[in-house]
From TrEMBL:
It comes from Leuconostoc falkenbergense. The keyword Cell membrane applies. It is a peripheral membrane protein. This is CDP-glycerol glycerophosphotransferase family protein. Pfam families: Glyphos_transf (PF04464). It comes from the Bacteria. PANTHER family: TEICHOIC ACID GLYCEROL-PHOSPHATE PRIMASE, TEICHOIC ACID GLYCEROL-PHOSPHATE TRANSFERASE. The lineage of its organism: Bacteria, Bacillati, Bacillota, Bacilli, Lactobacillales. Belongs to the CDP-glycerol glycerophosphotransferase family. It is found in: Cell membrane. Its main location: membrane. Keywords: Cell membrane, Membrane, Teichoic acid biosynthesis, Transferase.
Amino acid sequence: MIIYLKSRTTDEIIEVHIDNTRFRTLVSLVVEDISAPYYDVFTKVNDKLIPYRLGFFSFLKLFIFSGRYQHKLKNGQIIRTFTTRNRQLSYLHLSDNGMDKKMRKIQTKAYFCGEFVNLIQPFNRPQLAFEKLSERAQESGFAYFKYVQEHYPKEKLYFIIKRDAPDYAKLKAMQRVVIHGSYQHFYLLHRASLFVSSETPGHAYFWRENMGLTANVVRTKPYVFLQHGVLGFKKLDNIFYGDRLTAPSLLITSSLFEQNIVTSQLDYDAKRAPITGLARWDMIDLAQERMNNRDKILVFYTWRPWLDDISDESFRTSQYFQHIKATLTILSNYDDKQVILMMHPKLHATLDQSLLSKVKLWTDNDGPMNELLSSVATVITDYSSISWEAYYREIPVVFDMFDQTRYADEVGSYIDLDELPFGVKVTQDNHLQVALSEIAERHYQLTSKELADKTKYFDFQDQGASERIHRQIQSLDLSAIRRVKRRALISAVGRMLHRSNN
């Protein structure tokens, strides 16, 4: 018989011939010539595609033990069988996330041990901090962890990081550092009462490891979202909406302006969106920043979700690629400052080397973003929260929103993109040179209005954010939060099982 694998993000449909539709056959399926990340399985009846749905017990097997049903492809990628809430069979195509069979055995032992200890010792549980993919220690997660170690050394706050991460070196001498993938890591995922991070809980685990017992514990763990930057130019994913099971217990904000966005558009009350400032700003001495030698222009364009799964050829013809290429061509002749480029890896691979040779391509190996910004004179960006970071540091910003209409439709913004609170907005390539000339004329300083308005968007500029965040965390009633989440989870599982039986 034939089944059809339909991509969720493209029009691609792959025909696969199989002998039967037994569970063992379907979970052993290996398809080499696939490119998109997610495929749903269909059969065809009267030339119409019909979702292929699993039996109830097969559904439970995949929902709990999906990690067992994965296969490595010849190109090093992995294909994994999983199921959706409505019991449809699906396949996930992903790069190797590092989770192997040995780790799965360790994880199983840690799961039962962690859950057992939670039963007999439900109080005085530890907390976990981490950053992007558990590979970094340079943002608010690390800043808060470092603060707690220095000022509250008896508190059981641990930090997760991969042993081969470049930032691991700065953690070697610190206490309560946990190696990602170790028994202690898996144990603490279950034992911890709270996650504290500028990322979602999935970054404490394994990327796209989204099913199984541990994955579901991680997904529903109470957490404090420290944020990357001030909200405004980019809407958050719906997992952050206040009424969701996946929503944070606290969403840290920097001003009444930002708190109003969270309460009016994300359905939080003000208590869940405390105004503290970002923990990583504690590492910034504004008085020193004003005296720094600023000899760089930083170029940082955010990625577009509609470009995720297109070919390199299509990417080269996209407006995004062509516009950035034109911008870099202009800046390649700019002699006043060194031009630094931070970009998505796909852009690195497709830009002309002759063009890249005229600018400095900045990667994680060159150092953290916060260190780079201390020597930047101007930031050129589009909708990135790096603009708020620049504003906090009193660095002039040029906004190049060349695809504003499409961005507003497909991503969305919390503020009017035609009435920006700070910075210079350009609409044509030649206007970029004019904007840079105006900024140079005022010696790369903010305007008097931008300086006067700064307190509207940053209530605190005093290196005290971590202490304010700590007080907020100490005031949380974690037992009550866990009860609410437990009820919501039981209700969600009940609805899912009800759908699976219908």
